[in-house]
Model the fold of this input.
Amino acid sequence: MTPAARLSGAIDLLCAIQNAPRRPADATANAFFRERRYIGGGDRRAISTIVWDVLRGWRRLQWNLRDISGDISPRLICAASLLLGGETMENVRRLFSGERYAQNPLTSREDVALKGLEGKELSTQKQPLAVRLEYPDWLDSALRETFGNRLPDEMEAMLGTPTLDLRVNLLKGSREQAARELRRESLPAEMTKLSPWGLRLDGRQPVTATQAFKDGLVEIQDEGSQLVVAAADARGEHRVLDYCAGAGGKTLALAMTMENRGHIVACDVHEKRLDGAVKRLRRAGVHNVERHLLVSGDKWAKRRAGSFDRVLVDAPCSGTGTWRRNPDARLRLTPEDIQELVIKQAQILDRAASLVKPGGRMIYATCSLLACENGQQIDAFLKRRDDFRRLPKEQMSELLPAELRSKAQFSLTPLRDSTDGFFACVLERVVTEAKTQEEDVAITLPVTEDPST
Done:
């Protein structure tokens, strides 16, 4: 495709994203490209890069176009993104040539609006902090509660382009072997600093087309997500529950740490996601996993109360820690979403806790930056359940790097750790002599996981 055709494709994709405001942009993009299989891999990446650059700079672009009367169209905002990224007005006009596969020529209104942006920068100190750092105004106090004086630096790091992290499947080979295999296909990967199984690539790369991926030697998984699994310390003799399994990303990693022994139950309320995990499990060579669909009124959990050595709760959350990958999530998140999520997380924690055996562990994790979803959620849970405690630091998993083993809960951020934003806490169910009565844990609430993690 020509540069003009790629830009036209990007504008069409941005239109599709705007027409489905509550749907994640990556889901819309996947559907968009499935319907246009004639678009090759390189062109797909180029089109996606244009669109994701626009989404990452959305508030700044709107601010730069604030004096324009009328609606700001996808055409206008894509062109503005190019200009504020260093492109010249002459070249932008050339991309809107009206020739085959190109967008129609710029209107006089568009031309005037864009001409004033030539030579300017996307970010400026004149912009309000929340605009310059691309976060919702209403989240300012919550983010300051988390980061304090580090807020500008942390949010600046959130504007960057994420790396592509892989988890090597030790059931199929070593990290060194996987790196060699990828290098043969012109994908040089570096070993991650925190995860013992991670490899890192720059930017968007065609990993799923490699033989290493097809053979199940590597899986796409952010390093932070890998560390959540490391914190679980699941072993071959354990019975493990992945309570919010989604498409099985963490389930696969748990099976690896258990060396394909023991027993894992992967639960979710979305049948399609659980079915999608089947292909991944087969490719990875995993055979110690049972899937279970949670439905309203389900008594499955009640019958298995207190029977799991490890229960992983990768809770549905705001996804604020994934804003580098999902910049559109900043635009979709509302205060009402946070209020509903905090209630849901507490209820899920209570239900999952009843499945942990005495002496067993529950690992609570989110990809959120917000204290109300993280440490405050754990504090509230421990007030409700005196039979749980944070795991003593000397018992934390040796799979974790030393700097994360110093306490039972940890947070990760792009600035400090070069990962997505993650929170994880390891809780232990205290062994008591008194016989405890398990509560009814019939499933009434949806449980989900971001399948990318």
Observations:
- Confidence is low (pLDDT under 50) at residues 435-453.
